[in-house]
Amino acid sequence: MKFKHFTTGIAALLLLSNAIQLQAQEISAMQAPKVVSPEIAADNSVTFRVLSEKANEVTLNGSWMGFGKTVPLTKGEQGVWSVTIDPLTSSMYHYNLFIDGVAAIDPTNPQALRDGTRYASMLMVEGEGSKVFQLNETPHGNISQVWYESPSLGLDRRMYVYTPPGYESGKDSYPVLYLLHGAGGDEDAWTSLGRANLILDNLIASGKSKAMIVVMTNGNAWQTSSLRNAPGIGNITRENFAQYQGKFEKSLVEDVVPYVEKNYRVKAEKNSRALAGLSMGGGHTITASITYPGTFGYIGVFSSGIFDANADMAELEKKFTALKTSGVSKYWVACGKEDFVMESNKRLLSILDKTGFEHEYFENEGGHTWANWRTYLSMFSPMLFQ
Amino acid sequence: MKFKHFTTGIAALLLLSNAIQLQAQEISAMQAPKVVSPEIAADNSVTFRVLSEKANEVTLNGSWMGFGKTVPLTKGEQGVWSVTIDPLTSSMYHYNLFIDGVAAIDPTNPQALRDGTRYASMLMVEGEGSKVFQLNETPHGNISQVWYESPSLGLDRRMYVYTPPGYESGKDSYPVLYLLHGAGGDEDAWTSLGRANLILDNLIASGKSKAMIVVMTNGNAWQTSSLRNAPGIGNITRENFAQYQGKFEKSLVEDVVPYVEKNYRVKAEKNSRALAGLSMGGGHTITASITYPGTFGYIGVFSSGIFDANADMAELEKKFTALKTSGVSKYWVACGKEDFVMESNKRLLSILDKTGFEHEYFENEGGHTWANWRTYLSMFSPMLFQ
Fold first, then answer.
1. What pLDDT is recorded for position A5?
2. Closest-CA residue of chain B to A97
């Protein structure tokens, strides 16, 4: 079948020999990189390299270091800068190289992550700590980028919907987790950085989590999607931010939940609806759940709490009591010991205690990081719908 | 409703005041950039800026320049480098800044594009030339990242499926366009760089294209998805590349088409199936269509052709004659005048002429570029299923 060979195989070689004329995408897969970066050694130490004859200074910031900290790379032979860092525990990290102070992604690392309005290179150190969010050889659920009408906001908006393995080919109805991102994120954050789809794939495959649909909305009420702000909306300032307070929560419960329950095979009742969010999304979770008691049977608040130190605690207690009375199967709170929201988190715990609201609290090392939020989702999703 | 206010609004302000402790995603949306880049003037000239006190050299490569060409930026006050380029015609472009030779995305531009294994910053110069692939205020179709079983390749694989506006809420059956990427791309390319979903949104909204499903596969038979190569497969070399020849085409027709026709509401007949691809994907299109005559009623070959100058033309003519006899409603070929595949393209045209295979040929300016592929899709999709 000679004719079957000429198109694909020869195409690639032709493209290679004509590299000089090609767009980057046509050649990048075929080019041998001049440097290898990142290189993970057997002991999980990692070497980062970048080629620049001309740079004066190259530094590295990684998510394992914390914000604003850097380590220098040293210039070696042929203009290859490098640094080897101490072994990392297995997890997913991200990093930037700073070339004379300019944040760059690692040009030889093909895997980058979108972090809101910024990009960083991805570093996966595989091992026990990464298993739950790696792409393993399990069945995979699908992610759909779904446009829906939001009458509350007067916008067509986009959300991501994870459907578990078997959803498309089956007839079962599923419970739904509504999963909310933090400030600076959008509907892409929980899959790009949070790897929520892979966490669910792995936990469903191992039998630890029930199969469920996960709905990841855009919590910025002024945006249609990560692609665009609403027409007429420019940059968001402290002043125009105020006009959007409370609006996302309304759109979530009054627009998103009905859309999902109309268009997907779901169990449309309280004990088959969970709501969780991180940071600003934890705030959204608190507000939506107390504003609409009886809607969500499972509630998760990650790295968040009652942000306003001057909040009317008596009124809040009344609302939390009403939510408790409506019947909540699980109220789960998680926060890192070093998280700057700890005071807000404590205010939430205090209200839960005062109102006798049965809840579970998990506190771990670390701060306001995706490493923690992946952990929290991995712990929270097995508690749901059981 | 005071309690509705404390969580979202205050959350953002709190996050702002605690910026030093935050992950990038939590603050990037709130930070005022020190420089604005890119800045598009009223005449569509564009200024690029980047801040670096320490760099020795900063240059710019844009997709409007061609591969390997650069223009220098000049260092001005406070370490802000800048260059203003001549007005661009309205279109979508991408570019990199080279900081002392290291390819970077523009750190102040929140929109980046994945270009196979590389990333570039996106530049949208809005106007007549960009209307067809902008995000306009039309109904939007959804994109699903769909995992399917490929018995032909022995892999679970991922593809992107565009469903037109109204698909999810309706009951109609739709025709399907199978749309293939080039070498170095993957299942993400036609939406990220090709903006196929937005092209279809716009052409369906204006009534120029029929509503259709668009299936965007991964044409690299050694990959499960853009996320991972098949287990046991490392880097692809000329040697191991050979073993995959013809296998993608088999998986497309024997695995993907049946999956789509089982799991979506589609019209499962030849005149409701179209196949098109660019470059390597054009080669896949040629091979799949002559190997499986009677499967696809519409065929589009973009920037491609018969790559092997020594191909057995007599055997090819026999195969094209069989395809012609099976009945093809439209065979459409497009290539840029400066495209390096022009000789391959001419070999295809020669076979079509020799076999009396009715076809249309479109030749335009430019070469092997996404600007051309977006144009070709914009021209081809209105011809389909009419």
1. 36
2. B104
